[in-house]
Amino acid sequence: MNKVRLCDIAREAGVSTASVSNALKRKGGVNPDKAEEIRYLAARMGYNVGGDQERRRMRFMMYRKHGKVVMDTAFFAQLLEGVQDECRRLNCDLMINHVRAGDDISHMLDMPLLLLATEMSSEDLKPFKAINHPLLLLDSDFRFEPVSSVTIDNCEAGYIAARELIARGHKKIGFLDSALSFNNMTDRFSGFEQALRENGLAPFSRVKLEPTVDGADRDMSDYLASKPLLPTAFFAGNDIIAVGVSMALKRAGYHLPEDLSIIGMDDMPMCRVVEPTLSTVRVDKQRLGALAVSRLIDIMEGKTGVLRTRMGVSYIERGSVRSL
User: Fold this and answer.
1) Is residue 144 domain-resident?
2) pLDDT by residue (tens digit) across 215-257?
């Protein structure tokens, strides 16, 4: 922090604080000779003029590999809102880019990078590891890569969901997985499986579905056509899958939660409007985005090396789970 404040410089220069701010940032509205005088006075008083001129900046890159997880949903809208609000609060200039696998990103590696890595694999990460600026991954944790990240505690999420179902008397519990593999879903299954194992249980089934509402509905309908044995409850890897599966189950004649209970993941707005309302594991999306910005700035300022942060989650009880 500067010991000398803008109001101190303004008092010495006989101008307003706004004029001092504009002069230091080399904006218009101040006579050029007066602006030069203000900058000279500020430097003589010990104010970090260069630090004020060189605003922090970062790039937020939203990476899509196939676009079936990173979509225009409330989850990513709220995540982006958290990033923007925190940049605004910390006076950090933000550039936003939407890229797809295969795009030329070489010209975008010119500043600290916050990379939405939800759909990425270690192979996809390779071009970004050569960046000569601070890099932080958002919403995916590559534990064996020397890269900083901010993620949900996905293992905890799966663990909490399974624990809640077990507490309600369920022993035959299945997992609704994504047919497109990504790190978050893998970690959710790991936590889910651990909670079952600690209670002498094993996953009753693991059904892989396209992670879109229509895709999950279609794939679940195909699965039900084979007349499988069903569990008494499912944990869905995200709310979108949970809603698609619920549609397929109801169309097949099942009643929720009387015949089958479901817990989702993310706490999307759709959870409150489907019938029955969807019990889910809540993620504070805006806080996740804000936390990522804060951590990247810590790295930019040399306060930390490689840092992996996992944000906790919580269970939200609604109408899609019954006790046995």
Assistant:
1) yes
2) 999 999 999 999 999 999 999 999 999 999 999 999 999 999 9
